[in-house]
Amino acid sequence: MGRLVTGETMMAKYTLLTNNPVVRDLIENEAKHHLFFIDGPVQAVLSKCEALFLQGNCKLAADPLAGRRARPFPYLTLVLQESDKPADADDWNRLADYSALNSRRIEASEACSERLKRDYQALDCSFTKAALKL
């Protein structure tokens, strides 16, 4: 479902999980970041994040979930960073809350027109650029 696009070691500054092809194209050549491109819905991105949290060596570096509560987005980029400690309860809670919210609104985000999807891709990419200070 997801594939590592850049880098081979965990020496990257951040690990990005995204289903947004615009973010993939932006980050693909950024050797200082890992990128997992998930060819699937938002829920697949959240599942990949949960899997990485369970490995116990990363946490949320940015919380792009907070701004998405008002409206369903068909694209999601999560920015993680290495940590000596497992993700804390706040990170898990944010992920679980958004996952539950996304599950209830999945039809709305999947029913977007292509034009609206492009807008959401650009918006998600903008959030990512701001989080990475690009």
Description:
- The protein is α+β, with helices and mostly antiparallel strands and 134 residues long.
- The chain has one domain (2-132).
- The protein is built from five helices and five strands.
- Strands 1-3-2-5-4 form a five-stranded mixed sheet, sandwiched between helices.
- Helix 1 runs parallel beside helix 5 (114-132).
Q: What sequence of helices (H) and strands (E) makes up the elements?
A: EEHEHEEHHH
Q: How many E-type strands?
A: 5
Total number of helices: 5
Taking Cα atoms only, what radius of gyration do you get, to the nearest Å? 14 Å
Q: Give unreliable regions as ranges.
A: 1-11
Structurally, the number of domains stands at 1
* Mean pLDDT figure: 81
Strand order across the biggest sheet? 1-3-2-5-4
What overall geometry do the principal axes of the alpha carbons give? globular
Helix content bin:
40-55%
Structural class: alpha+beta
Give the distance, in angstroms, between the N- and C-terminal Cα atoms. Answer: 27 Å
Beta-strand portion reads 15-25%
Biggest beta sheet summary = 5 strands, mixed
Oligomer: single chain
